[in-house]
């Protein structure tokens, strides 16, 4: 008797991969799923059972928001037991945000959720979409020596690499090799073979029930420092009504200008219950604010270190923690902890 075929659910949300040129405006617009599959006849050569689910209206990922993340999570939850893995087709612009958000929302995930897309539409002769889609399906179907899935986490598959979703950032607007994971090793190198970096793969604790957390609280924002930033700007951001958390992007290892007004503004905001996380504007390395006196002031004012979190992981993690109902103090504690492989403690 033949072994049961691997089953993959392909979720199409939109993005360049499925776009087609509008003959009037010449702009790229999302098209429907059949167009996509018609352009990848090779899919039929894969020996898996592939079903698909399409967003009612495929979107440019620039329009992505937490409600869409909830939609993806719901499709995965509803189909979790029936499939060995999930592939999400998504625009590249906000792919790293979606990958980070889903990594927090899909608790105790033990199956692959592989997100991919492309820089050129799938119908174009030089498209990168066909290769990315086929490889993503293969990765979602790959098995480890114990018979379980090789990948048990949310990951981004793009061109040469499989990356941890909540460690990824879109790095290039033009290159096929568009994503980087600067603070964590690649999960697999995609070359002639798909070579998995087994030491880097997440191995979630067995026996815990898969559970989706849907609530994401968007009362959060970024505050990006730059030489010359004005007190009025910082004050305006920190006093936004209803705001619960700020991801502050600082210089180097977590430094800021040493203006006393800056520390006073932050101290007041923290005192009033705002969570301020310090992450670096550098994509590689981590925040160690006590290294220079320029960073000590921020720590003393009550900011919490975001260690080596990406900007996408930091903001979505905050949304998730506040969505769970955490207070600023509790959320601050968890922002410093590694929950799903997003941070090096
Ligand atoms: N604007 C497109 C999107 O993010 C770009 C892409 O898919 O590469 O949906």
Tag the structure with descriptive keywords.
single chain, about 350 residues, alpha/beta, Rossmann fold, 2 domains, 8-stranded mixed sheet, 4-stranded parallel sheet, 18 strands, about 25% helix
Give a short overview.
This protein has 345 residues and is of the alpha/beta class. The chain has helices at residues 33-38, 66-79, 95-105, 129-141, 231-238, 260-271, 293-300, 311-323, 328-335; strands at residues 7-14, 19-21, 28-30, 49-59, 85-89, 106-107, 113-116, 154-158, 161-164, 169-170, 179-180, 188-190, 194-196, 211-212, 220-224, 245-250, 275-280, 304-305.
Word description of this protein:
- By secondary structure, this protein is an alpha/beta fold.
- Helix content is 27%, strand content 22%.
- It folds into 2 domains: 206 residues, Rossmann fold (3-Layer(aba) Sandwich); 116 residues, Rossmann fold.
- The protein is built from 9 helices and 18 strands.
- The strands form 5 sheets. The protein has an 8-stranded mixed beta sheet with strand order 4-1-5-7-8-9-12-13, with helices on both faces. The protein has a 4-stranded parallel beta sheet with strand order 15-16-17-18, with helices on both faces. The chain has a two-stranded antiparallel sheet with strand order 2-3.
- A hairpin with a 6-residue loop joins strand 2 and strand 3.
- Helix 3 packs parallel to helix 8, helix 5 runs parallel beside helix 6 and helix 8 crosses helix 9.
- It is globular, with a radius of gyration of 21 Å.
- The protein starts with 6 loop residues before the first strand and ends in a 10-residue tail after the last helix.
- Bound molecules: aspartic acid.
- The site of aspartic acid has 11 residues, from loops.
């Amino acid at each position: 008797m033949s072994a049961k075929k691997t089953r993959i659910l392909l979720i199409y949300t939109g993005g360049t991969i499925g776009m087609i040129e509008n003959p009037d405006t010449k702009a790229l617009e999302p098209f429907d799923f059949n167009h996509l599959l018609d352009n990848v006849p090779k899919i039929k050569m894969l020996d898996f059972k592939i079903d698909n689910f399409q967003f009612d209206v495929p979107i440019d990922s620039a329009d992505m928001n937490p409600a869409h993340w909830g939609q993806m999570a719901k499709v995965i939850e509803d189909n979790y037991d029936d499939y060995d893995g999930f592939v999400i087709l998504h625009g590249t612009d906000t792919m790293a945000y979606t990958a980070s958000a889903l990594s927090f929302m899909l608790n105790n995930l033990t199956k692959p959720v592989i997100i991919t897309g492309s820089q050129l539409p799938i119908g174009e002769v030089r498209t990168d979409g066909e290769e990315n889609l086929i490889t993503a399906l293969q990765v979602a179907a790959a098995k480890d020596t114990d018979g379980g899935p090789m990948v048990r986490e949310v990951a981004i598959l793009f061109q040469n690499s499989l990356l941890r979703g909540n460690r990824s950032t879109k790095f290039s607007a033009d290159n096929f090799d568009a994503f980087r994971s600067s603070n964590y090793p690649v999960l697999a190198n995609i070359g002639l073979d798909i070579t998995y970096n087994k030491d880097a793969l997440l191995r979630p604790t067995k026996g815990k029930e898969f559970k989706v957390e849907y609530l994401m609280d968007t009362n959060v924002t970024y505050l990006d420092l730059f030489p010359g930033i004005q007190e009025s700007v910082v004050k305006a951001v920190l006093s936004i009504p209803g705001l619960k958390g700020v991801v502050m992007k600082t210089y180097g290892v977590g430094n800021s200008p040493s203006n006393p007004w800056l520390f006073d503004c932050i101290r007041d905001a923290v005192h009033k219950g705002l969570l301020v996380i310090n992450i670096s504007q550098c994509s590689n390395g981590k925040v160690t604010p006590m290294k220079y006196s320029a960073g000590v002031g921020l720590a003393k004012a009550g900011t919490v270190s975001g260690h080596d979190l990406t900007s996408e992981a930091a903001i979505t993690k905050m949304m998730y923690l506040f969505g769970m109902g955490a207070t600023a103090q509790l959320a601050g504690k968890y922002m410093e902890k590694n929950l799903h492989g997003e941070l090096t403690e």
